[in-house]
Amino acid sequence: MDTTQVLKGLLDTAVLAIVAREDTYGYDIIRRLRAAGFDEVGEASVYGTLRRLYRGGYLTSQIVPSEEGPPRKYYGINAAGRDLLERSTKTWTHLAAVMNDLLDLTEEAA
Question: pTM of the full predicted structure?
């Protein structure tokens, strides 16, 4: 199954979940998503998501000097972002339960 379209729908929630754990920068988010199993996540998609969430008022940002190169823009989650993450988590939990029920019905019919 091509997970690209599914990931697009979940990317906001996945990024918020990572940033909720600790402030971090774009490439680290990409690394964490890939380590979690989203191998096909594109850099442009993640950076676009970060910009959109920031402009939407769900993230904070700050420039932090780096010992390994140019300064990095670190993102943090704010109250609006935590609220969005909570709502998105509830939606995901509901949809996952519905899909699990449907898949169980499919297995029972086989």
Answer: 0.88
